[in-house]
Write a structure and sequence with these properties.
CATH topology: Rossmann fold
Radius of gyration: 17 Å
CATH class: Alpha Beta
Number of strands: 8
Number of helices: 3
Distance between the termini: 49 Å
């Protein structure tokens, strides 16, 4: 499909005096919230809930938010295929240029392709991400999705809901709910990125 995204100027400068927030190298792993077996169980449960709510797999499409959400969408596609005997279509959406903080400390945002190999207009979409936090990522994903057409409905599936919302966003399917503080971070590690499947809680080193 033709890329219809609205693109801000690629050479827009970062705001002076800004620094990257929540630098990953400043965070230390504190505890494991879920291991490989637990992650698998969560995804199987979410897949079953998606099928039950939508009456099967023939009338939905899965859209993963790059990159963690895309890996989860591909896994959910396979699990739904095992349940229903048919695979729902999967697409990927990149939100880099739709974020409201894209040029705050991110002078050269990494932009991945948006790939939606189906007609978005009129299609029920299950939007998938790894961690739901402030809600701003989901808002950006909805803005990006609407540039490709008006879905009949959008449902949200996340592996982890860590709370601390800044926007009125709620997931329809959740693997794990965990209470966190603004100083903490929840990281989903997957085999697709060379890690073993697990969910970890991190915080800044004292």
């Amino acid at each position: 499909m033709q890329d219809k995204r609205r693109h801000p100027p690629a050479d827009s400068p970062a705001r002076p005096g800004t620094a990257p927030a929540n630098r990953p190298d400043a965070l230390v792993e504190r505890r494991v919230l879920a291991d490989r077996a637990a992650v698998t169980r969560m995804l199987r449960r979410i897949a079953n809930e998606i099928v039950e709510r939508n009456g099967g797999a023939s009338a939905i499409a899965l859209v993963g938010i790059r990159t963690g959400g895309l890996y989860l969408a591909e896994r959910l596609q396979r699990l739904i295929g095992e349940i229903e005997g048919e695979l729902p279509p999967v697409g990927a959406i990149d939100i880099s240029l739709y974020r409201d903080d894209v040029f705050e400390g991110l002078p050269k945002p990494v932009i991945g392709p948006t790939e939606l190999p189906f007609e978005v207009a009129g299609m029920p979409i299950v939007l998938i991400d790894d961690v739901l936090y402030t809600g701003r990522t989901v808002r950006a994903a909805l803005d990006a999705l609407m540039d490709y057409g008006r879905p009949r409905a959008v449902q949200l599936a996340v592996l982890v809901d860590r709370g601390l919302r800044e926007l009125p966003v709620r997931a329809d399917y959740v693997g794990l709910v965990v209470e966190t503080t603004p100083d903490e971070s929840v990281k989903v590690l997957l085999v697709e990125t060379g890690e073993s499947d697990r969910i970890v809680l991190r915080s800044r080193d004292a």
